[in-house]
Amino acid sequence: LFDMEGTLLPSNVVESYVWARMADLPLEEWPEELFSVFSRIPSYLMADRRDRGEFLRTFFRRFEDASVDRVDQLIDDVVSEFMLQKLSAAAVRRIREHRAAGHRTILITAAAEPFVRPLAPLFDMVIAAKLAVEDGRYTGYLAEPPLVGEARAAWLRRYAETEGADLKASYAYADSHSDLALLRAVGNPVVVSPDAALLRVARRRRWPIEEWEMSGGMPRVRFPKPAMR
Predict the structure, then answer these.
(1) Domains annotated on the chain, with CATH
(2) Does residue 142 contact residue 130 with C-beta atoms inside 8 Å?
(3) End-to-end CA distance of the chain, in Å?
């Protein structure tokens, strides 16, 4: 089981949104949109510290009235390349090793489902945030609570019970202290490029600690071209 942001690649939900949004706007509208996003960073950070779920519910409001088809197109045209360029080569090798060993691989993330699609072929199963849709447009709300913190571990236990999976023989890869419950739920937790809080726990528990760098062989990321009007 793999976390995405900070584990497989260094981007986050804000960065992925900015890439898609910039590609959908003419150049002259970039400053206003960037100011709108970055001026709210302090409030996003405060919400994230209080409750990761609160942050996600707040941030995903930015998708209100966005066309599902247009978002899918932007992800295919812009975000997919951006994500694949940032994807850790070490992560890809590890995923392939597990699949070669016959292990079922699962990606679990708080990112919205459309933004995870570029990585889906690497996994047997993808669990991501579901955005509510009405008449082909996003409402700005989540269709169901996001899987963060303890909710991830609870989901994993339910899944293991339903599928007959042995959690003691299972692996989990994550980078954040917020994923501690998930890591504790498996017999083989692996800490990847951890934050300070998780690093302390990993050292105390003698969990494996790995650093997965972004692939040096990937081309430099280019900022998206502005939309034509």
Answers:
(1) 2-210 (3.40.50.1000)
(2) yes
(3) 43
Question: What are the tens digits of pLDDT across the range 103-120?
Answer: 999 999 988 999 899 999
- Torsion angle of the four alpha carbons 41, 42, 44, 50, in this order, in degrees rounded to the nearest 10: 160
State the SS3 of the chain. CEECECCCECCCHHHHHHHHHHHCCCHHHHHHHHHHHHCCHHHHHHHHHHCHHHHHHHHHHHHCCCEHHHHHHHHHHHHHHHHHHHCEHHHHHHHHHHHHCCCCCEEEEEEEHHHHHHHHHHCCEEEEECEEEECCEEEEEECCCCCCCHHHHHHHHHHHHHHCCCHHHCEEEECCHHHHHHHHCCCEEEEECCCHHHHHHHHHHCCCEECCCECCCCCCCCCCCCCCC
Q: How far apart are CA 16 and CA 12, in angstroms?
A: 6
Predicted confidence (pLDDT) per residue in 151-192, tens digit: 999 999 999 999 999 999 999 999 989 899 999 999 999 999
**C-alpha torsion sign, points 137, 51, 5, 179:** negative
The bridge status of strand 131-134 relative to strand 137-142 is antiparallel
The residues pairing with 209 across neighbouring beta strands, listed in sequence order, are: 191
Q: Is the dihedral of CA 155, 130, 48, 173 positive or negative?
A: positive
